[in-house]
Amino acid sequence: MATRLKIDFVSDVSCPWCVIGLRALDDALARIGPELEVEFEFQPFELNPQMVAEGQGLDEHIMQKYGMGPADTARNREAIRARGAELGFEFRMDKRDRIYNTFDAHRLLAWAVGEGHQRALKNALFEAYFTRGESPADHAVLLAAATAVGLDSARAAAVLASDEFAEEVREREGFYHQHGIHAVPAIILNDRHLVQGGQPSEVFEQALREVAGLN
Fold first, then answer.
1. Which of 16, 45, 60, 164 lies 20 to 30 Å (CA to CA) from residue 113?
2. Omega cis (within 30) before 185
3. Alpha-carbon Rg of the chain, whole angstroms?
4. Which domains does the chain have, with CATH numbers?
5. Beta carbons of 173 and 12 less than 8 angstroms apart
6. DSSP per residue over 8-47, as a string?
7. pLDDT digits (tens, 9 = 90+) for 130-168
8. So what's the pLDDT on residue 39?
């Protein structure tokens, strides 16, 4: 009989290390295979909750927020690109030059949980931003991603045109902030065990096995 494991993946759609962490976690789960039965849900986290919808130039933002100059930024981007390539994800640094507000993306993801398409939508939003350089604040981009993964386009448009799921997203974000989550990705296993960052697949596999008692 498979062991049940609950995974809450706290992340933002504009976080490159969240893409890397998710890919590595999926690789770890594939290695373990049918020994684990996983209940998986993405939880919201905004890296830049005060960001205006039109966004900010990425280089300017990184300098202001992290104090990183051009050389450090270039090295970091190359590390991200290389890690992504190893895990089968294409980061197109030449396509992405702005950082955007992601609140509406999180509202759409909260709705997608009940529709059974949250994971597919999350992946579609990652690809829209990091591979094609599209804005996750743009409702047209969000609607296209939702439609592409099989979600009802009229219902998705209605969610985006309203404030539906805003309260739920803010409540979940507040919950994780209050419990000490201030950086993502944060992967919480069975509501108790935290794995932080875009770890290698081997690190995730070891953590999953330990928490599930599979060692």
1. 16
2. yes
3. 17
4. 3-212 (3.40.30.10)
5. no
6. EEEE-TT-HHHHHHHHHHHHHHHHHGGGEEEEEEEEE--S
7. 999 999 999 999 999 999 999 999 999 999 999 999 999
8. 97
pLDDT tens digits, 41-77? 999 999 999 998 789 998 898 888 888 888 888 899 9
Q: Which of 6, 9, 1, 7 is nearest to 198 (CA)?
A: 9
Mark out the alpha helices in 33-152 (DSSP H runs): 58-66, 70-86, 103-115, 118-126, 139-148
**One-letter amino acid identity for 50?**
Q
Length of the chain: 215
CB-count burial class (<10 Å; 0-12, 13-18, 19+) for 191: exposed
Q: Tokens 């684990």 identify what position?
A: 36
CB burial readout 156-168, b (16+ within 10 A) else e? bbebbeeebbeee
Report the first-to-last Cα separation within the chain, whole angstroms.
Answer: 15
Q: How distant, in Å, are the alpha carbons of 23, 60, 97, 184, 186 from that of 204? A: 11, 33, 31, 15, 12
Strand partners, 123: none
Q: With 90 as the cut, is the pLDDT of residue 40 above it?
A: yes
- Residue 107 CA from chain centroid, whole number: 13
The b-or-e profile of 89-105 (16+ CB within 10 A means b, else e) is: bebeeeebebbbbbbbb
DSSP code, position 4? E
What is this structure's pTM?
A: 0.96
